[in-house]
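Supplementary material to the annual report.
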Amino acid sequence: MLFFRSEERAAKWCEGRGVPRRPLVTMNQLWKLATTWYATRLEAVARRPQASEMRALFASIGLDDDFWDPGSDRFG
Amino acid sequence: MFADRDLGVKVAIYGHFAETGRRPEVVDVARRAGIDEAGVVASFQSLRAQRLLLLENDGRSIRMAPPFSGVPTQHLVEADGIGYFANCAWDALGVPAALRKPGRVHSRCEESGEPLDLPVGLEGPESSDWLFHCLVPAAKWWDDLVFT
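Predicted assembly:
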């Protein structure tokens, strides 16, 4: 899980390593993921999101590809 | 002290990370949680099984207590005068989110090496056109969390 300066930089990095390009996420989308995942992490009541909650979270910010589905078997 | 030992250990681990920016040793967790070291090590294994913690091979050293990293990484977050290493780009924003404090994320573009210096407030990062890329599909994240 890495930062890139631009879409072109991410594409070049993937091409150079012969790995597939994945969906790119903006900083605002990433903040939504980070706060949902971690906002209560220091508290006793904190718990990891369950699969259904993960799907709902990703979908809520437009990440609805199978890539973001924790139950997907598309990737072997 | 918590009635649930694992919960007490988890809170102690995160409390130490938040206060120091560094991973606690078993003895630190024992003191903070008010239990013996054997109990701490047993809880480390339990928390690992619950995917809340990643341990080094010795079973006693914390590699990851997401979003915090127990070892130095390329993702450094400064908040309230303390430096925190994050496990990945996602966790770099996760540190100020977990601390509920403004911070500053220092990282880099993985392709060009260009430095990233991103202020993050309580409502989120300053406007930025940098991007986040995850190579591993969500269904595989825990197969190899260090690689992910």
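Chain A has three helices and two strands.
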